[in-house]
Design brief:
7% strand, mainly alpha, globular, 61% helix, Rhomboid-like fold, three-stranded antiparallel β-sheet
């Protein structure tokens, strides 16, 4: 277990990470609609969640479900959560890492980046899952892409986080995120909680690592040296 708490990296290119806040606000609003709405969480999960069998035509839902064409549930499922723990865990990762990744690419590119990572992560899960009837929901695939991007951008920044049973530690991003990635890898291949889309996490991480060099702002050696000096001061 790893939960990030704080990194302290200042924003360079923007005052407010609007894209990050939009994603957090949308996920929170949909959660509240799920929790307090008249239909309950089962209706929203069936309406917006990704069910691999429905995508590939081997399963069928009652008339009226899903709420969008089945292929679009590869996207809509990203914004659906049904427990506070699920929502807060994903949003905490996004809050700590998302602003600096967004700062490196801009608002619009960040939103596109997040959706692309989440969509490909959902597709990876749909292709490898052994339970095509089980719905997939949650932002963790997109969040995993953001985590990968942060690792590439700021590998040596020291992060405060809670590890294992809640032990507070401060360590470089490559150590903290490496520990988190190892947990995802072990859980995917050695049998973690079957209710978690471990392969979606891995898929989102890989896509994020591939996309960040393409979608970040043009590399400026002078700015990079200044940034490196400021980051060293945070260690």
């Amino acid at each position: 277990m790893f939960l990030p708490l704080h990194d302290g990296v200042p924003l360079k290119n923007m005052k407010t990470p609007l894209g990050t806040r939009i994603v957090i606000g949308l996920c929170t609003a949909i959660y509240l609609a799920t929790f307090y709405g008249p239909g309950g969480d089962n209706e929203l999960v069936a309406g917006l969640g990704l069910i691999p069998g429905v995508i590939f035509g081997t399963e069928a839902l009652p008339p009226g479900y899903p709420f969008v064409p089945p292929v679009l549930t590869l996207v809509t499922n990203i914004f659906v959560h049904v427990t506070w723990f699920h929502l807060l865990g994903n949003m905490l990762f996004l809050w700590v890492f998302g602003d600096n990744v967004e700062d490196a690419m801009g608002h619009g590119r960040f939103l596109l980046f997040f959706v692309l990572c989440g969509t490909v992560a959902s597709l990876v899960h749909a292709l490898v899952t052994g339970e095509p009837h089980r719905p997939l929901i949650g932002a963790s695939g997109g969040v995993s892409g953001v985590v990968a991007a942060y690792l590439i951008l700021y590998p040596r920044v020291r992060i405060w986080g809670l590890f294992l049973k809640g032990i507070p530690l401060r360590m470089p991003a490559y150590g903290a995120i490496g520990f988190w990635f190892a947990l995802q890898l072990a859980s995917a291949f050695l049998g973690g909680d079957e209710a978690v889309g471990w392969f979606a996490h891995l898929g989102g991480f890989v896509v994020g690592a591939i996309l960040i060099p393409v979608m970040r702002h043009r590399y400026d050696p002078v700015l990079a040296r200044v940034e490196a000096q400021e980051i060293r001061a945070l260690r």
